[in-house]
Specification:
alpha+beta
Length: 461
Protein backbone atom coordinates (compact mmCIF):
# COMPACT_ATOMS: atom_id res chain seq x y z
CA UNK A 1 0.00 0.00 0.00
CA UNK A 2 1.45 3.32 -1.09
CA UNK A 3 0.92 6.30 1.19
CA UNK A 4 -0.28 9.59 -0.34
CA UNK A 5 2.49 11.93 -1.41
CA UNK A 6 1.28 15.11 0.26
CA UNK A 7 2.29 15.74 3.86
CA UNK A 8 -1.26 16.69 4.84
CA UNK A 9 -2.69 13.45 3.47
CA UNK A 10 0.01 11.36 5.15
CA UNK A 11 -0.64 13.06 8.49
CA UNK A 12 -4.40 12.47 8.16
CA UNK A 13 -3.92 8.81 7.22
CA UNK A 14 -1.44 8.29 10.05
CA UNK A 15 -3.73 9.97 12.59
CA UNK A 16 -6.76 7.95 11.50
CA UNK A 17 -4.73 4.74 11.58
CA UNK A 18 -3.50 5.45 15.10
CA UNK A 19 -7.03 6.25 16.29
CA UNK A 20 -8.36 3.08 14.66
CA UNK A 21 -5.66 0.91 16.25
CA UNK A 22 -6.21 2.53 19.65
CA UNK A 23 -10.00 2.08 19.37
CA UNK A 24 -9.64 -1.57 18.37
CA UNK A 25 -7.27 -2.25 21.24
CA UNK A 26 -9.60 -0.58 23.72
CA UNK A 27 -12.61 -2.42 22.27
CA UNK A 28 -10.81 -5.75 22.43
CA UNK A 29 -9.70 -5.14 26.00
CA UNK A 30 -13.24 -4.09 26.95
CA UNK A 31 -14.74 -7.22 25.41
CA UNK A 32 -12.22 -9.45 27.21
CA UNK A 33 -12.82 -7.75 30.56
CA UNK A 34 -16.58 -7.97 30.09
CA UNK A 35 -16.40 -11.65 29.14
CA UNK A 36 -14.22 -12.34 32.16
CA UNK A 37 -16.66 -10.50 34.45
CA UNK A 38 -19.76 -12.24 33.06
CA UNK A 39 -18.03 -15.61 33.17
CA UNK A 40 -17.19 -14.94 36.81
CA UNK A 41 -20.85 -14.26 37.58
CA UNK A 42 -21.87 -17.36 35.63
CA UNK A 43 -19.32 -19.46 37.51
CA UNK A 44 -20.78 -18.31 40.83
CA UNK A 45 -24.22 -19.39 39.64
CA UNK A 46 -22.81 -22.73 38.46
CA UNK A 47 -21.26 -23.42 41.88
CA UNK A 48 -24.49 -22.43 43.60
CA UNK A 49 -26.45 -24.71 41.27
CA UNK A 50 -24.05 -27.56 42.02
CA UNK A 51 -24.62 -27.21 45.75
CA UNK A 52 -28.39 -27.28 45.30
CA UNK A 53 -28.16 -30.35 43.04
CA UNK A 54 -25.94 -32.17 45.54
CA UNK A 55 -28.36 -31.60 48.42
CA UNK A 56 -31.46 -33.01 46.68
CA UNK A 57 -32.43 -36.53 45.52
CA UNK A 58 -32.29 -35.38 41.89
CA UNK A 59 -31.35 -38.11 39.51
CA UNK A 60 -30.96 -40.68 42.22
CA UNK A 61 -34.59 -41.84 42.07
CA UNK A 62 -37.42 -41.95 39.58
CA UNK A 63 -39.77 -39.03 39.46
CA UNK A 64 -43.29 -38.85 38.14
CA UNK A 65 -41.91 -38.56 34.62
CA UNK A 66 -38.99 -41.01 34.87
CA UNK A 67 -35.41 -39.82 35.57
CA UNK A 68 -36.35 -36.20 36.09
CA UNK A 69 -35.27 -33.84 38.86
CA UNK A 70 -37.21 -33.83 42.06
CA UNK A 71 -37.02 -31.75 45.20
CA UNK A 72 -34.26 -29.07 45.00
CA UNK A 73 -33.90 -29.64 41.24
CA UNK A 74 -37.17 -27.84 40.88
CA UNK A 75 -35.38 -24.64 42.01
CA UNK A 76 -32.79 -24.83 39.23
CA UNK A 77 -32.79 -22.39 36.33
CA UNK A 78 -34.09 -23.57 32.97
CA UNK A 79 -31.31 -24.96 30.71
CA UNK A 80 -29.37 -26.17 33.76
CA UNK A 81 -27.39 -29.33 33.04
CA UNK A 82 -27.41 -32.10 35.64
CA UNK A 83 -25.70 -35.44 35.04
CA UNK A 84 -24.27 -38.55 36.68
CA UNK A 85 -21.87 -39.75 33.97
CA UNK A 86 -20.85 -42.82 35.93
CA UNK A 87 -24.50 -43.96 36.03
CA UNK A 88 -25.20 -42.93 32.43
CA UNK A 89 -27.85 -40.39 33.41
CA UNK A 90 -28.03 -36.70 32.48
CA UNK A 91 -30.60 -34.07 31.59
CA UNK A 92 -30.92 -30.47 30.57
CA UNK A 93 -33.78 -28.84 32.49
CA UNK A 94 -36.57 -27.00 30.74
CA UNK A 95 -39.29 -24.67 31.97
CA UNK A 96 -41.60 -27.67 32.45
CA UNK A 97 -40.33 -30.97 33.88
CA UNK A 98 -41.73 -32.97 31.01
CA UNK A 99 -39.83 -30.92 28.51
CA UNK A 100 -36.38 -31.72 29.94
CA UNK A 101 -33.94 -33.20 27.44
CA UNK A 102 -31.96 -36.32 28.07
CA UNK A 103 -28.22 -36.27 27.38
CA UNK A 104 -26.89 -38.85 24.98
CA UNK A 105 -23.91 -41.11 25.56
CA UNK A 106 -21.50 -38.81 23.68
CA UNK A 107 -22.38 -35.92 25.93
CA UNK A 108 -22.08 -38.09 29.05
CA UNK A 109 -18.63 -39.28 27.91
CA UNK A 110 -17.48 -35.65 27.55
CA UNK A 111 -18.84 -34.78 30.99
CA UNK A 112 -17.12 -37.82 32.49
CA UNK A 113 -13.78 -36.30 31.48
CA UNK A 114 -14.37 -33.11 33.49
CA UNK A 115 -11.96 -33.16 36.48
CA UNK A 116 -13.46 -33.31 39.95
CA UNK A 117 -11.40 -30.42 41.35
CA UNK A 118 -14.08 -28.00 42.47
CA UNK A 119 -13.31 -25.62 39.59
CA UNK A 120 -15.60 -24.55 36.77
CA UNK A 121 -14.73 -25.75 33.25
CA UNK A 122 -16.04 -25.09 29.76
CA UNK A 123 -17.51 -28.01 27.82
CA UNK A 124 -19.14 -28.09 24.38
CA UNK A 125 -22.17 -30.34 24.93
CA UNK A 126 -23.42 -31.86 21.64
CA UNK A 127 -26.82 -30.52 20.55
CA UNK A 128 -26.95 -28.18 23.57
CA UNK A 129 -24.06 -25.76 23.07
CA UNK A 130 -21.31 -24.53 25.33
CA UNK A 131 -21.63 -24.97 29.11
CA UNK A 132 -19.73 -23.98 32.21
CA UNK A 133 -19.78 -27.06 34.43
CA UNK A 134 -18.38 -28.26 37.73
CA UNK A 135 -18.21 -31.67 39.43
CA UNK A 136 -19.29 -32.24 43.05
CA UNK A 137 -19.11 -35.87 44.28
CA UNK A 138 -19.57 -37.33 40.79
CA UNK A 139 -22.57 -35.08 40.06
CA UNK A 140 -21.97 -32.72 37.13
CA UNK A 141 -23.96 -29.51 36.98
CA UNK A 142 -23.64 -26.50 34.75
CA UNK A 143 -25.21 -23.54 33.00
CA UNK A 144 -25.04 -22.49 29.36
CA UNK A 145 -22.76 -19.64 28.24
CA UNK A 146 -25.27 -18.47 25.65
CA UNK A 147 -26.25 -15.36 27.62
CA UNK A 148 -22.62 -14.41 28.15
CA UNK A 149 -21.75 -15.00 24.50
CA UNK A 150 -24.75 -12.97 23.37
CA UNK A 151 -23.88 -10.06 25.66
CA UNK A 152 -20.24 -10.04 24.56
CA UNK A 153 -21.22 -10.29 20.88
CA UNK A 154 -23.59 -7.35 21.31
CA UNK A 155 -20.87 -5.29 22.93
CA UNK A 156 -18.42 -6.17 20.13
CA UNK A 157 -20.94 -5.14 17.47
CA UNK A 158 -21.56 -1.81 19.17
CA UNK A 159 -17.81 -1.28 19.61
CA UNK A 160 -17.15 -1.95 15.93
CA UNK A 161 -19.92 0.44 14.94
CA UNK A 162 -18.69 3.16 17.29
CA UNK A 163 -15.09 2.57 16.16
CA UNK A 164 -16.14 2.99 12.54
CA UNK A 165 -18.01 6.19 13.35
CA UNK A 166 -15.05 7.42 15.39
CA UNK A 167 -12.59 6.70 12.57
CA UNK A 168 -14.75 8.53 10.02
CA UNK A 169 -15.22 11.49 12.36
CA UNK A 170 -11.51 11.53 13.17
CA UNK A 171 -10.63 11.49 9.48
CA UNK A 172 -12.88 14.46 8.73
CA UNK A 173 -11.72 16.42 11.77
CA UNK A 174 -8.03 15.54 11.24
CA UNK A 175 -8.23 16.59 7.58
CA UNK A 176 -9.62 19.99 8.56
CA UNK A 177 -7.19 20.55 11.44
CA UNK A 178 -4.07 19.33 9.61
CA UNK A 179 -4.74 21.41 6.52
CA UNK A 180 -5.36 24.45 8.67
CA UNK A 181 -2.17 23.89 10.64
CA UNK A 182 -0.14 23.38 7.45
CA UNK A 183 -1.51 26.49 5.77
CA UNK A 184 1.49 28.61 6.99
CA UNK A 185 3.81 26.09 5.33
CA UNK A 186 1.92 26.66 2.08
CA UNK A 187 2.57 30.41 2.43
CA UNK A 188 6.28 29.70 2.92
CA UNK A 189 6.24 27.55 -0.22
CA UNK A 190 4.54 30.39 -2.15
CA UNK A 191 7.41 32.70 -1.19
CA UNK A 192 9.93 30.12 -2.45
CA UNK A 193 7.98 29.74 -5.72
CA UNK A 194 7.88 33.52 -6.17
CA UNK A 195 11.67 33.68 -5.83
CA UNK A 196 12.09 30.73 -8.20
CA UNK A 197 10.35 32.69 -10.97
CA UNK A 198 12.78 35.62 -10.76
CA UNK A 199 15.36 35.99 -13.58
CA UNK A 200 18.59 35.46 -11.65
CA UNK A 201 20.91 34.53 -14.51
CA UNK A 202 22.55 37.91 -15.05
CA UNK A 203 22.31 41.60 -14.42
CA UNK A 204 21.38 43.44 -11.27
CA UNK A 205 18.74 41.35 -9.50
CA UNK A 206 17.13 42.16 -6.16
CA UNK A 207 15.62 39.24 -4.26
CA UNK A 208 13.14 41.28 -2.22
CA UNK A 209 10.71 38.44 -1.53
CA UNK A 210 10.69 37.33 2.11
CA UNK A 211 8.60 35.07 4.30
CA UNK A 212 6.21 37.24 6.36
CA UNK A 213 7.36 38.00 9.89
CA UNK A 214 4.47 36.11 11.51
CA UNK A 215 5.77 32.91 9.86
CA UNK A 216 9.34 33.20 11.18
CA UNK A 217 8.78 32.47 14.86
CA UNK A 218 11.49 29.88 15.53
CA UNK A 219 9.52 28.44 18.46
CA UNK A 220 7.46 26.57 15.86
CA UNK A 221 8.56 24.16 13.15
CA UNK A 222 7.02 26.27 10.39
CA UNK A 223 8.69 29.33 11.88
CA UNK A 224 12.06 27.60 11.76
CA UNK A 225 11.53 26.80 8.07
CA UNK A 226 10.45 30.38 7.37
CA UNK A 227 13.41 31.87 9.24
CA UNK A 228 15.83 29.52 7.49
CA UNK A 229 14.36 30.44 4.10
CA UNK A 230 14.70 34.16 4.86
CA UNK A 231 18.33 33.60 5.84
CA UNK A 232 18.89 31.70 2.60
CA UNK A 233 17.22 34.45 0.54
CA UNK A 234 19.36 37.11 2.23
CA UNK A 235 22.45 35.08 1.41
CA UNK A 236 21.30 34.64 -2.19
CA UNK A 237 20.63 38.36 -2.49
CA UNK A 238 24.06 39.30 -1.14
CA UNK A 239 25.67 36.71 -3.43
CA UNK A 240 23.83 38.11 -6.45
CA UNK A 241 24.90 41.62 -5.52
CA UNK A 242 28.49 40.45 -5.20
CA UNK A 243 28.25 38.69 -8.56
CA UNK A 244 26.83 41.81 -10.20
CA UNK A 245 29.60 43.93 -8.72
CA UNK A 246 32.12 41.39 -9.97
CA UNK A 247 30.59 41.51 -13.46
CA UNK A 248 30.76 45.29 -13.43
CA UNK A 249 34.36 45.17 -12.24
CA UNK A 250 35.26 42.75 -15.02
CA UNK A 251 33.65 45.00 -17.61
CA UNK A 252 35.41 48.04 -16.16
CA UNK A 253 38.66 46.08 -15.97
CA UNK A 254 38.44 45.10 -19.63
CA UNK A 255 37.59 48.67 -20.61
CA UNK A 256 40.44 50.13 -18.55
CA UNK A 257 42.95 47.54 -19.78
CA UNK A 258 41.88 48.21 -23.36
CA UNK A 259 42.27 51.94 -22.82
CA UNK A 260 45.71 51.58 -21.26
CA UNK A 261 46.90 49.33 -24.06
CA UNK A 262 45.36 51.45 -26.79
CA UNK A 263 47.36 54.55 -25.85
CA UNK A 264 50.87 53.05 -26.23
CA UNK A 265 49.76 51.13 -29.31
CA UNK A 266 48.52 54.36 -30.89
CA UNK A 267 51.84 55.99 -30.01
CA UNK A 268 53.83 53.14 -31.56
CA UNK A 269 51.70 53.24 -34.72
CA UNK A 270 52.13 57.03 -34.95
CA UNK A 271 55.90 57.02 -34.62
CA UNK A 272 56.23 54.04 -36.95
CA UNK A 273 54.23 56.03 -39.54
CA UNK A 274 56.51 59.04 -38.93
CA UNK A 275 59.64 56.94 -39.54
CA UNK A 276 58.10 55.44 -42.69
CA UNK A 277 57.29 58.85 -44.13
CA UNK A 278 60.83 60.14 -43.48
CA UNK A 279 63.06 57.29 -44.60
CA UNK A 280 66.12 59.49 -44.94
CA UNK A 281 65.73 61.41 -41.69
CA UNK A 282 68.01 59.69 -39.16
CA UNK A 283 66.92 61.95 -36.31
CA UNK A 284 63.23 61.19 -36.91
CA UNK A 285 63.99 57.45 -37.07
CA UNK A 286 65.95 57.58 -33.81
CA UNK A 287 63.13 59.49 -32.07
CA UNK A 288 60.56 57.03 -33.40
CA UNK A 289 62.58 54.01 -32.20
CA UNK A 290 63.04 55.58 -28.77
CA UNK A 291 59.31 56.20 -28.41
CA UNK A 292 58.48 52.72 -29.67
CA UNK A 293 60.87 51.25 -27.11
CA UNK A 294 59.42 53.40 -24.34
CA UNK A 295 55.83 52.48 -25.14
CA UNK A 296 56.76 48.81 -25.56
CA UNK A 297 58.32 48.85 -22.11
CA UNK A 298 55.18 50.49 -20.74
CA UNK A 299 52.95 47.85 -22.35
CA UNK A 300 55.24 45.07 -21.09
CA UNK A 301 54.93 46.30 -17.50
CA UNK A 302 51.16 46.58 -17.85
CA UNK A 303 50.81 43.09 -19.34
CA UNK A 304 53.10 41.59 -16.69
CA UNK A 305 51.05 43.23 -13.93
CA UNK A 306 47.83 41.95 -15.46
CA UNK A 307 49.31 38.47 -15.81
CA UNK A 308 50.43 38.48 -12.17
CA UNK A 309 46.96 39.55 -11.05
CA UNK A 310 45.40 36.78 -13.13
CA UNK A 311 47.74 34.21 -11.62
CA UNK A 312 46.97 35.39 -8.09
CA UNK A 313 43.24 35.34 -8.82
CA UNK A 314 43.59 31.76 -10.01
CA UNK A 315 45.15 30.81 -6.67
CA UNK A 316 48.61 30.17 -8.07
CA UNK A 317 50.77 29.49 -4.96
CA UNK A 318 53.71 31.76 -4.19
CA UNK A 319 57.07 30.70 -2.84
CA UNK A 320 57.25 30.18 0.93
CA UNK A 321 60.80 30.92 1.99
CA UNK A 322 62.32 32.95 4.82
CA UNK A 323 62.53 36.61 3.76
CA UNK A 324 64.58 39.21 5.65
CA UNK A 325 62.01 41.99 5.80
CA UNK A 326 64.50 44.37 7.43
CA UNK A 327 66.92 44.16 4.52
CA UNK A 328 64.05 44.36 2.01
CA UNK A 329 62.78 47.65 3.47
CA UNK A 330 66.27 49.09 3.81
CA UNK A 331 67.08 48.48 0.13
CA UNK A 332 63.71 49.79 -1.07
CA UNK A 333 64.01 53.03 0.92
CA UNK A 334 67.57 53.60 -0.37
CA UNK A 335 66.31 53.19 -3.95
CA UNK A 336 63.48 55.63 -3.26
CA UNK A 337 65.93 58.25 -1.94
CA UNK A 338 67.80 58.06 -5.23
CA UNK A 339 64.66 58.26 -7.38
CA UNK A 340 62.99 61.08 -5.37
CA UNK A 341 65.61 63.12 -3.54
CA UNK A 342 63.09 65.98 -3.16
CA UNK A 343 61.09 63.86 -0.68
CA UNK A 344 62.15 63.23 2.90
CA UNK A 345 62.53 59.50 3.57
CA UNK A 346 62.62 57.94 7.05
CA UNK A 347 63.04 54.31 8.04
CA UNK A 348 62.25 52.98 11.53
CA UNK A 349 63.65 49.52 12.23
CA UNK A 350 63.69 47.45 15.43
CA UNK A 351 66.97 46.37 16.98
CA UNK A 352 66.58 42.82 15.72
CA UNK A 353 65.91 41.86 12.13
CA UNK A 354 62.45 40.54 11.24
CA UNK A 355 61.93 37.51 9.03
CA UNK A 356 58.69 36.33 7.40
CA UNK A 357 57.80 33.37 5.22
CA UNK A 358 56.91 34.37 1.69
CA UNK A 359 57.94 35.13 -1.84
CA UNK A 360 60.83 37.63 -1.71
CA UNK A 361 60.30 38.96 -5.22
CA UNK A 362 56.57 39.46 -4.68
CA UNK A 363 57.11 41.16 -1.31
CA UNK A 364 59.73 43.41 -2.88
CA UNK A 365 57.11 44.45 -5.43
CA UNK A 366 54.67 45.25 -2.60
CA UNK A 367 57.18 47.56 -0.90
CA UNK A 368 58.22 49.16 -4.22
CA UNK A 369 54.61 49.81 -5.26
CA UNK A 370 53.77 51.46 -1.94
CA UNK A 371 56.87 53.72 -2.05
CA UNK A 372 56.23 54.54 -5.72
CA UNK A 373 52.62 55.43 -4.89
CA UNK A 374 53.79 57.75 -2.09
CA UNK A 375 56.43 59.31 -4.35
CA UNK A 376 54.16 59.97 -7.34
CA UNK A 377 51.08 61.20 -5.51
CA UNK A 378 52.63 63.55 -2.95
CA UNK A 379 54.33 66.90 -3.59
CA UNK A 380 58.09 67.51 -3.13
CA UNK A 381 59.10 67.94 0.50
CA UNK A 382 56.63 65.32 1.75
CA UNK A 383 58.00 63.13 4.52
CA UNK A 384 57.52 59.40 3.87
CA UNK A 385 58.08 57.12 6.87
CA UNK A 386 58.53 53.36 6.61
CA UNK A 387 58.17 51.46 9.91
CA UNK A 388 58.84 47.78 10.46
CA UNK A 389 56.45 46.09 12.92
CA UNK A 390 56.34 42.66 14.50
CA UNK A 391 53.58 41.66 12.05
CA UNK A 392 54.73 43.44 8.89
CA UNK A 393 55.38 47.07 8.03
CA UNK A 394 53.69 50.43 7.53
CA UNK A 395 54.19 53.23 5.00
CA UNK A 396 53.04 56.70 6.16
CA UNK A 397 53.30 60.16 4.65
CA UNK A 398 52.18 63.68 5.56
CA UNK A 399 50.93 64.48 2.08
CA UNK A 400 47.41 65.55 1.04
CA UNK A 401 46.03 62.01 1.37
CA UNK A 402 43.57 60.12 -0.80
CA UNK A 403 40.44 61.88 -2.07
CA UNK A 404 37.39 60.67 -0.10
CA UNK A 405 35.74 59.24 -3.22
CA UNK A 406 38.89 57.21 -3.97
CA UNK A 407 39.74 55.96 -0.47
CA UNK A 408 37.04 53.26 -0.51
CA UNK A 409 38.24 51.91 -3.87
CA UNK A 410 41.97 52.50 -3.54
CA UNK A 411 42.87 48.81 -3.81
CA UNK A 412 40.63 48.11 -6.80
CA UNK A 413 42.15 47.65 -10.25
CA UNK A 414 42.60 50.79 -12.35
CA UNK A 415 41.41 52.91 -9.42
CA UNK A 416 42.94 56.37 -9.83
CA UNK A 417 42.15 59.82 -8.63
CA UNK A 418 42.79 61.38 -12.04
CA UNK A 419 39.64 61.00 -14.07
CA UNK A 420 41.40 62.27 -17.18
CA UNK A 421 43.75 59.26 -17.10
CA UNK A 422 46.92 61.24 -17.60
CA UNK A 423 49.88 58.97 -17.82
CA UNK A 424 52.00 60.57 -15.14
CA UNK A 425 49.95 58.93 -12.41
CA UNK A 426 50.30 55.37 -13.70
CA UNK A 427 47.60 52.92 -14.73
CA UNK A 428 46.09 52.24 -11.31
CA UNK A 429 47.33 48.69 -10.73
CA UNK A 430 49.93 49.35 -8.03
CA UNK A 431 47.72 49.09 -4.96
CA UNK A 432 45.65 46.34 -6.56
CA UNK A 433 48.82 44.27 -6.86
CA UNK A 434 49.71 45.09 -3.26
CA UNK A 435 46.42 43.71 -1.97
CA UNK A 436 46.53 40.65 -4.24
CA UNK A 437 50.08 39.71 -3.19
CA UNK A 438 49.48 40.32 0.52
CA UNK A 439 46.25 38.30 0.38
CA UNK A 440 48.10 35.45 -1.36
CA UNK A 441 50.50 35.47 1.61
CA UNK A 442 47.55 35.09 3.98
CA UNK A 443 47.96 38.67 5.19
CA UNK A 444 45.92 41.85 5.24
CA UNK A 445 46.41 45.41 4.05
CA UNK A 446 44.40 48.46 5.15
CA UNK A 447 44.40 52.18 4.46
CA UNK A 448 43.82 55.05 6.88
CA UNK A 449 43.93 58.47 5.25
CA UNK A 450 43.29 62.05 6.31
CA UNK A 451 44.88 65.24 4.96
CA UNK A 452 48.40 65.30 6.38
CA UNK A 453 48.40 61.69 7.58
CA UNK A 454 48.08 58.69 5.26
CA UNK A 455 48.99 55.22 6.49
CA UNK A 456 49.01 51.90 4.64
CA UNK A 457 49.62 49.00 6.99
CA UNK A 458 50.61 45.54 5.77
CA UNK A 459 50.23 42.59 8.14
CA UNK A 460 51.86 39.37 6.98
CA UNK A 461 51.48 37.15 10.06
Amino acid sequence: MRLPRSLASRLVVTTVALVAVAALLISGATALVMRSYLNGQLDDKVLSSARRAEDGPGLRGPGPHGHEPRGPFGNQEPATLVALPDEGVGIVLADQPGDSAQLDDEALDLLADVPDDGEVHTVDVPEHGRYRVTVEGGLVSGLPTESVDAAVASVVRWELLLTLLGVVSTGALASSVVRRQLRPLTEVAETARAVATLPLASGEVGVTERVPAHLTDERTEVGQVGAALNTLLSHVESSLDARHRSEQQVRQFVADASHELRTPLATIVGYAELARRRPGDAEAAATALAKVEEESTRMTRLVEDLLLLARLDAGRPLAREPVDLTRLLLEAVEDARVLAPEHRWALHLPEESVEVLGDEQALHQVVTNLLTNARKHTPPGTEVTVSLTDRGFEVADDGPGFPPELAEHAFERFARGDAARHRQGGVGLGLALVRAIVTAHGGDVRLDTTPGDTRIRVDLR
